[in-house]
Amino acid sequence: xxxxxxxxxxxxxxxxxxxxxxxxxxxxxxxxxxxxxxxxxxxxxxxxxxxxxxxxxxxxxxxxxxxxxxxxxxxxxxxxxxxxxxxxxxxxxxxxxxxxxxxxxxxxxxxxxxxxxxxxxxxxxxxxxxxxxxxxxxxxxxxxxxxxxxxxxxxxxxxxxxxxxxxxxxxxxxxxxxxxxxxxxxxxxxxxxxxxxxxxx
Length: 201
Description:
The chain has 201 residues and is an alpha/beta fold. The protein is built from 5 helices and 9 strands. The strands form 2 sheets. Strands 4-5-6-3-7-8-9 form a 7-stranded mixed sheet, with helices on both faces. The chain has a two-stranded antiparallel sheet with strand order 1-2.
């Protein structure tokens, strides 16, 4: 646990810690996103792509992809003195999805990272969080050379609820990623507050 002093002579502040998942398709930038904002050396479980995995690892659209996450990525970022996020990047391939349930336990919310050149690759992540009522934000990772679409066009293509935030981001830029994470926390808090409101009779 992290302890910090807010001002000289005041009692230590024990921050609230929140768990956020980072999900999406194979090669969409999840490992990059976690590594970009983590204030600690991120834990990575990457392995080199092999010939044995070629039939199941679809590298179409990601020709420079030579490694893959086989368990998770882990990082930490302090958004405020009293608020720390633990980030868990999920593996992107179908054969590792059995890990998702374990990683999702206790999560406040999630980022579904999307690439507009391969938008269908994030369908499974969107479906996963919708089915489990885990609040999520879609972060459109703006790769160089990819066409940029308005947020509403991405929302329509993914058939998202109108209240699900869709934001453009660059997984390589710390401030861009921080804004996405702030959006996740705010969205999850809003969803939680709405769920606690009494139902009118």
